[in-house]
């Protein structure tokens, strides 16, 4: 259906029926089309098995029967739950959590106007932090495969005898077999991190094609509209093909170069000994120089300008996308040949020099986070906002947590593999000392987190006691029920924990930074694991160090198992998904602007879907529409509305309920969902009404300034609907919280008000002061 033809295939104004449309968008966890449309008979009218628009069967051909829909809209449901849920194997995406978190930090920058260079520097620092996470992951894989397995265990007779599958790599058990030399063992083990790199590259490419390759509507960029302008309305915002492809090439090359360095560096160091062969020594220097040049090229590619959002950029940097990974692959092959060259005198002893590698990565990450904090502070000071989380430092704090997650996961895998290979703890040296220190700081960090949680619990309990009076005041004249009052008050108090999240993130990230710095200093200063480094000190200190070291290793293993188990349950169990799904959906909502190996962005499919649907409907029928979004669906609805042409946006009414637009997105992502952006959206759409409850931990008011606040936000809905038993509700009404907003009569009232505005003629005037057709029960403004 194009913009010139009517729904019956005829051109011109005859096909423009003026029929209204009600487009429903579900939230976290998803639902079925039958539940959304309140009819068991539904049919898919457009879309595929991943995301589609459904109608009731009787409405399938509504465009051809415009007279049947005079005075009522055509209801449709956009179902996108398959973009973020599926079978249990998707839980493996949780292993990419550090990449997703650092990508979030990119979008958390404060609002800025006229500071283009500072904003670019912010994005550059986050991209560099993302690059260090890729190097860290691959370095951990090299540590496991090359150092622990091929170098230490296979080179030690006791360990190799315990693991017979390593017999062909052991010089003692294979009688000097071809694969038993150190260089060839390392070359063979390099297949593991190289395969991991290939898997990440393949998943990034495949998920981009499946989720993010849908181009938005191709339109000319509008003028920059001052403080209220948001990048979400730019034509190329939801199409980051060029940047993702360039970053994918750079990160793939960085990973391959890391593997090449892990194989070639030990051989080059051996060849530099006195009396070593001059040819191999020269080749070692040439190889290391080539690896250094490759690293410089990778950093240069990452430092290039970020996203192109002002236009729909379909081009690719052909000189980078293919040549850079292929050149890195060629260097890896050369490193494998160089490392595998016969060196009869070479034997493996001790551990490979991993402390320098992991220590350098940790130091660079800490410096990047500190620099990012300075830049974020400068940006925030230029346009301060009291509602912004952590005074604009949310991005640096989240980047710190991403680096900590990467370090803990990498160190945990190395520690657990070492414990498995060396059951006695005496046959091999184990992982680098710094990784053991990283594991040892987990118990004190958990103590800090538990103390914070205890403080929040105490604050919540005190708030719940205060809320009891408010609950009783909301239901005057009814017989009191202390148990029910306590439950309602506690639910309200627990819902406020969302607003305390910035404090928890700030203190946790600060403790992580300090403990990580202490671990780095302790490892470099002593060169020993914490238990040995504390030997000779006070008995309490020594015992605490040994306990932290042992407990940290087991906590990592337990956390890894729980992590994957919860992830599988969240993908397979809708109730569990609704519990933790909002955090995952927030993380995968944003395009991959800082890390190409992060989980795919579902919004690069969902937002163009909704935009195309709304734009083609208004062009083809001349009608207007209400887009109704719950929870995360309201974020998709608002993002799609920003993508419309201004003329089409004026024909859209917006109904949001349980919406995190201001409470989560406005506070944590102020540059894109700040008060100016939300205020401009209110002014640009035909009408916007928002519903929320005090018991809702996710949704909240939009808090727009001035008259715009009451025009958008209806007063908080009652929850539960009735306090005690009544003639209409003889059984106790449930506390709904974030779910089932449609059960409240206020929902039908606001929905009817918006639908009453849908006329084929010119939209009704705004802010006229005339009374609304249906006065709101809570006394709020009925005008938009």
TrEMBL record:
Keyword check for Transmembrane: yes
Segments traversing the membrane: 91-109, 121-141, 186-205, 249-270, 282-303, 324-341, 361-380, 392-413, 433-457, 503-527, 547-567
Region (Disordered): 213-233, 753-784
Superkingdom as given in the UniProt entry: Bacteria
UniProt keyword terms in alphabetical order: Membrane, Transmembrane, Transmembrane helix
Family matches, as SUPFAM superfamilies: alpha/beta-Hydrolases
Protein name per the record: Integral membrane protein
Lineage: Bacteria, Bacillati, Actinomycetota, Actinomycetes, Kitasatosporales
């Amino acid at each position: 259906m194009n913009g010139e033809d009517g729904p019956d295939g005829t051109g011109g104004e005859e096909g423009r029926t003026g029929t209204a449309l009600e487009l429903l968008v579900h939230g976290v966890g998803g639902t079925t089309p039958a539940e959304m449309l309140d009819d068991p008979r539904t049919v898919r009218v457009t879309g595929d098995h991943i995301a589609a628009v459904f109608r009731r069967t009787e409405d399938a051909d509504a465009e051809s029967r415009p007279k049947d829909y005079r005075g009522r809209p055509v209801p449709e449901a956009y179902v996108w739950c398959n973009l973020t849920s599926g079978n249990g194997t998707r839980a493996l995406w949780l292993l990419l959590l550090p990449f997703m978190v650092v990508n979030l930090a990119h979008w958390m920058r404060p609002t800025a106007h006229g500071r283009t260079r500072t904003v670019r520097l912010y994005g550059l620092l986050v991209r560099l932090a993302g690059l260090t996470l890729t190097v860290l992951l691959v370095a951990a894989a090299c540590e496991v495969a090359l150092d622990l397995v091929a170098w230490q265990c296979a080179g030690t007779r006791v360990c190799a005898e315990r693991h017979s599958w390593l017999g062909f790599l052991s010089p003692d058990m294979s009688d000097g077999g071809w694969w038993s030399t150190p260089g060839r063992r390392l070359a063979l083990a390099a297949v593991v991190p190289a395969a991991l790199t290939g898997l990440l590259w393949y998943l990034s490419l495949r998920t981009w094609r499946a989720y993010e390759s849908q181009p938005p509507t191709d339109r000319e960029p509008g003028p920059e509209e001052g403080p209220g302008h948001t990048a979400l309305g730019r034509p190329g915002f939801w199409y980051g093909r060029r940047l993702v492809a360039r970053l994918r090439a750079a990160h793939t090359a960085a990973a391959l170069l890391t593997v090449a360095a892990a194989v070639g560096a030990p051989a080059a160091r051996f060849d530099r000994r006195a009396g070593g062969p001059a040819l191999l020594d020269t080749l070692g220097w040439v190889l290391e120089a080539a690896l250094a040049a490759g690293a410089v090229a990778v950093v240069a590619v990452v430092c290039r300008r970020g996203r192109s959002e002002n236009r729909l950029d379909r081009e690719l940097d052909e000189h980078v996308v293919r040549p850079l990974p292929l050149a890195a692959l060629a260097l890896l092959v050369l490193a494998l040949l160089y490392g595998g060259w016969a060196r009869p005198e070479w034997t493996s002893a001790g551990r490979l020099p991993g402390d320098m590698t992991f220590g350098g990565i940790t130091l660079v990450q800490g410096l990047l986070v500190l620099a990012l904090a300075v830049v974020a502070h400068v940006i925030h000071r230029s346009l301060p906002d009291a509602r912004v989380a952590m005074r604009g430092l949310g991005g640096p704090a989240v980047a710190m947590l991403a680096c900590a997650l990467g370090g803990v996961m990498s160190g945990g895998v190395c520690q657990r593999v070492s414990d498995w290979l060396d059951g006695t703890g005496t046959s091999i040296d184990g992982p680098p000392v710094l990784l053991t220190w990283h594991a040892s700081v987990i118990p004190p960090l958990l103590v800090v987190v538990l103390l914070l949680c205890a403080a929040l619990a105490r604050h919540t309990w005190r708030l719940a006691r205060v809320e009891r009076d408010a609950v009783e005041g909301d239901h005057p004249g009814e017989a009191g029920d202390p148990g029910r009052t306590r439950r309602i008050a506690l639910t309200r108090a627990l819902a406020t924990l969302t607003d305390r999240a910035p404090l928890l993130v700030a203190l946790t990230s600060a403790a992580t930074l300090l403990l990580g710095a202490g671990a780095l200093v302790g490892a470099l200063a002593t060169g020993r694991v914490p238990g040995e480094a504390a030997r000779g000190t006070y008995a309490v200190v020594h015992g605490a160090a040994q306990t932290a070291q042992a407990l940290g290793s087991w906590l990592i293993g337990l956390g890894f198992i729980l992590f994957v188990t919860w992830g599988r349950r969240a993908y397979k169990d809708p109730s569990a998904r609704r519990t933790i799904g909002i955090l995952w959906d927030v993380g995968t909502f944003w395009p991959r602007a800082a890390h190409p190996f992060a989980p795919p962005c579902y919004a690069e499919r969902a937002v163009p879907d909704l935009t195309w649907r709304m734009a083609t409907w208004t062009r083809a029928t001349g009608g207007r529409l209400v887009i109704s979004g719950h929870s995360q669906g309201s974020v998709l609805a608002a993002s799609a509305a920003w993508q419309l042409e201004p003329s089409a946006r004026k024909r859209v009414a917006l109904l949001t309920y349980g919406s995190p637009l201001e409470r989560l997105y406005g506070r944590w992502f102020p540059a894109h969902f700040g008060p100016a952006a939300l205020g401009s959206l209110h002014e640009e759409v035909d009408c916007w009404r928002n519903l929320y409850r005090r018991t809702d931990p996710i949704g909240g008011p939009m808090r727009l300034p001035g008259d715009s606040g009451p025009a958008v936000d209806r007063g908080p809905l009652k929850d539960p609907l009735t306090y005690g038993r009544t003639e209409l509700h003889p059984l106790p009404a449930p506390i709904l919280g974030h779910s089932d907003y449609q059960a409240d009569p206020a929902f039908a009232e606001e929905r009817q008000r918006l639908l009453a505005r849908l006329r084929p003629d010119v939209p009704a005037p705004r802010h006229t002061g005339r009374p609304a057709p249906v006065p709101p029960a809570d006394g709020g403004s009925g005008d938009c």
